Amino acid sequence: xxxxxxxxxxxxxxxxxxxxxxPCGAFSSNSQGADSTDEKVLVHLNKPVYIAGEMLRYRxxxxxxxxxxxxxxxxxxxxxxxxxxxxxxxxxRINVHRGDNSGYCRLPADLKGGVYTLTAYTSQMRxxxxxxxxxxxxxxxxxxxxxxxxxxxxVINSNRAFSTVFEEAIQDLVVxxxxxxNAGDTAETIITLNKELTGDTAxxxxxxxxxxxxxxxxxxxxxxxxxxxxxxxxxxxxxxxxQVYAKEDKSYMLSGTVRSKLTxxxxxxxxxxxAVNDSLFPHIRYSRTDSTGRFIFYLDRxxxxxxxxxxxxxxxxxxxxLWEIDRKRLPVPGRPYVPYAVHHSEINSxxxxxxxxxxxxxxxxxxxxxxxxxxxxxxNYFGPPDMLVKPADFSDxxxxxxxxxxxxxxxxxIGRNNTYAIQVFNLKTGQWPETNMILLNxxxxxxxxxxxxxxxxxxxxxxxxxxxxxxxxxxxEGLVSIYTFDHKIPEAYLKNRxxxxxxxxxxxxxxxxxxxxxxxxxxxxxxxxxxxxxxWEPAREITGNQQLVLRFPTSLLKGFYDIxxxxxxxKGTILSGSTSFEVK
Length: 584
Hints:
By secondary structure, this protein is mainly β. Among the domains are: 39-236 and 331-365 and 526-583, Immunoglobulin-like, CATH 2.60.40; 387-497, TonB-dependent receptor, plug domain (Ferric Hydroxamate Uptake Protein, Chain A, domain 1, Beta Complex). It has eight helices and 33 strands. The strands form nine sheets. A five-stranded mixed β-sheet has the order 2-8-7-4-5, with no helix packed on it. The longest helix is centred in the N-terminal third of the chain and has 14 residues, at 6-19. The radius of gyration is 29 Å and the shape is elongated. It starts with 5 loop residues before the first helix and ends with a strand.
């Protein structure tokens, strides 16, 4: 980005300091209060039993436990799926919105059959006791492996092993449905709020699914006495007990520590550059490390689901750099599990569930990924360049020196001490300042010997900024950005100089959910699966004097089906209601 006068210089400095990485010293672990958070999260899943490889769908309810406001200050929510030993098998995060926070995540196809616990939390909620967080057990079976005859059920804060309602709620919702339906009929359910909530409005999520006897297990005193309770495996966790986790109230915070591989000492005052491999709109962040080698970046949605490339902007550190990126995992304390012998009838119900889902409906379930691929609009960090050249428009030039000498006025590529440097002419000063860093496909790049080999057959375009360019505390006197046809950064360079972090975010939204009123679906999606998951409505509104009527086709599979309705009112009341019906 260039500037032409003092006013623009001051404005640019303010913008760059605001959106670049901030020195981590301003965000020490003690900058946040040690008090536990008032943030509360509840999650409604579309069903309690899944098959490895299919989609887990959910609706997230958030609110402040003290003010009863339905929103969190945190803007990032984490999910962790752990097995009975406390080993994390799947972790993802979403960006929390002020509204509907429904979403989906595909379960790994190689999960073994058993009981898993889903936990939802924000970064600040990691300061709370693990027992106070939302947790729910789910059953996962596999199409390729037999279901185990003994389950190990983690004991959660519930007397039900597989809770399908919000444990904090009373039956504030009245859910009515017919007792018996014939296979293929249209069922109708009527949902109303209790009279005490007449003046309130609520947001609801509704699921209808095939009942599996296994999910009716109650962890009562008799079971605890009869079964041997085994302590869960306790790992080292993510930090000491006095760790205070910061609140991600603006965006995702990428933080970590850099150390010398040779001495293991922290690198204080280091210049950390963050970029992504992008040939359209480069977005670079800058942060300096504090005395302990800590750094931090605030990342907006533009960085979601991309490979983040972290580099040291200083001269090479002898022996290399050790990157320690802070993970947002939740340390799982010792938590008991109960062994449970599965009855033949329960195994038969799981077998029927597996057989009812065709392999295509599990592994080829189409999902609308447009929201995941869409990148939020971002500012072109460099602004319009002073010069843009497309070398392919000219005659063949075999290397960068020939390009600068023939079609790139104001830029010199010079050799010095067995390496190369770039000089960019400054119109204001009349001088040729030198820089040994350029941008290659949006990434700061220092290997000038590699750059020297690029010619017109490699380079799609070159952008030049001839004035000073501010990047945090760094001032670059002239900037040259090279974009290649293959849009790549040499792997050997990345391996030796950088740390790559996959910034995975699951998109919010529920593209395949809808109410079916007797009409054939125009979508080819198998979800909701009208054999075992008849309905999934993650976001419906209801007022105190309203009847919410939903119609859906019953399954051709005979058996009992559960209707579970959860919700949160505008006044902060947790709502829950359920009922069941039979298909003959």
